[in-house]
Amino acid sequence: MTDETTPAPRPDVHRPDTPAPRSLPPLGNPAQRATLDQCVKCTICETACPVMAVTPLFPGPKFVGPQAERFRGGPSVDQGVDYCSSCGLCTLACPQGVRIAELNSIARATMKAEQGMPVRDRLITQTTLMGKAMTPVAPLANAVLGNKAARVVMEKVVGVHRDAPMPTASPQTLHGWLAKRPAPTRPAPRGPLVFFHGCAGGYFEVEAATHAIEVLEHLGYEVIVPKQGCCGLAQQSNGLFTEAAASVKRLVAQLRSAGRDLTIVSTAGSCTGMLKHEAHEILGVADADLADVGARIRELSEFLWELHEAGDLPVEQFGRLELTVPYHAPCQVKSQGMGTPASDVLRLIPGLTVVDSGVPCCGIAGTYGLKKEKYEIAQAVGQPLFDLVRATNPDLAVCDTETCRWQIEKSSGARTVHPITLVHAALGLGTLDIG
């Protein structure tokens, strides 16, 4: 764990007797800076910050956000902003509407553009490439990532911590499963919708994606799964704004190709947030490039809860699941301002007791907790959650987003599944494997 006596970094404020910083083209959405003057220095954002609570290396969202932003010219004026995990809880908590997390993300990207991007931060954003490379050699890839000696070498050479959770490669991609399975024979009276699986659903957590498709078809939908790439979220969170903007624009075009008036449903909760608001609010991607897709996309549990509220979810078909499970709502789902639809849907299943974690963050924050210098911070942030999972059900936990599931599973020992896996089992479409 970080030495608690280490002083927090101080901003390197530019003074008249020092050389002016190199001028950089503006990055991100400049509209976020307009929220600065709404900050009243109430520190509510600091009480909500999970990182500031466990390490002095992060001076806090107010300090590196609206307070430091007033001193920024071209590059960022402080190094502490790199310890922001981009969880977004500060923005969510701010009563004045200051876009703190967005300001911090833009400042970090500017800092890296000025000082240089670590090779590690470029490599860990290549999620689609990683999936394509690992799938054909899945047993070997998984063996290497599970090998302690190989992970030590990876830590020393690349900078990914030896104990950080890694994705498990699937021997079959989602599109491979779609190509080999028999054509659906069930009628689709509710018509077509588009399924967005994200990189993890396409390559690493194919089971969650197949469960989603089977549930949606059971409910009477024709599920269209167009070819699709990465949303660019990992690139954005690592400061690669140009690359992230290009990725999200390509993805939007791919999703539009399936129909411009169809609902889009996704098991990738964090990627859904990228399309709904982050690409515009952080990257500055024009509304015209995103608006129709952002308005049409629904996180899967959000979609199912909307069906329930409309009286269109056949809850009478749910079988009993005599289980108690801990449920963790990820930061990037909470940041979408839709409540906790997953726990609401799960509570419709007879016999199932859902215990909401109430923990702000699991610590992983996408790629944040993978990094050698941030791993211990991520573990400290997530420790209350890991303890709760072990106390509630040491065998099974539930969470909406991929990297959060990997973090919970690795650090608590409990198998951690997408909520749709429980819905899939309750509808009798498969058995629930807890072992």
Task: Draw up the topology in text.
Elements: H1 44-48, H2 61-69, H3 89-93, H4 100-115, H5 119-123, H6 127-134, H7 138-145, H8 148-157, H9 174-180, E1 192-196, H10 198-203, H11 206-218, E2 222-224, H12 233-237, H13 241-256, E3 264-266, H14 269-283, H15 287-296, E4 297-299, H16 300-309, E5 323-328, H17 331-334, H18 341-346, E6 352-356, H19 375-392, E7 396-399, H20 402-412, E8 415-417, H21 419-426
Parallel strand pairs: 1-2, 1-3, 3-4, 5-6, 5-7, 7-8
Describe this structure in words.
The protein has 435 residues and is of the alpha/beta class. Helices cover 45% and strands 7% of the residues. The chain contains 21 helices and eight strands. The protein has a four-stranded parallel beta sheet. It has a four-stranded parallel beta sheet with strand order 6-5-7-8. The radius of gyration is 22 Å and the shape is globular. The N terminus is likely disordered.
Hey, roughly how much beta strand do the residues contain? Answer: 5-15%
| Structural class by SSE content | alpha/beta
Residue stretches low in confidence (pLDDT < 50, at least 5 long) are 1-23
Largest sheet: 4 strands, parallel
| SSE pattern | HHHHHHHHHEHHEHHEHHEHEHHEHEHEH
Helix content class: 40-55%
Structural shape: globular
The tally of beta strands, per DSSP, is 8
Mean pLDDT: 91
Terminus-to-terminus distance: 32 Å
The number of distinct helices, counting runs of at least 4 residues, comes to: 21
Rounded to an integer in angstroms, the radius of gyration calculated over CA atoms is: 22 Å
Order of strands, main sheet, comes to 2-1-3-4
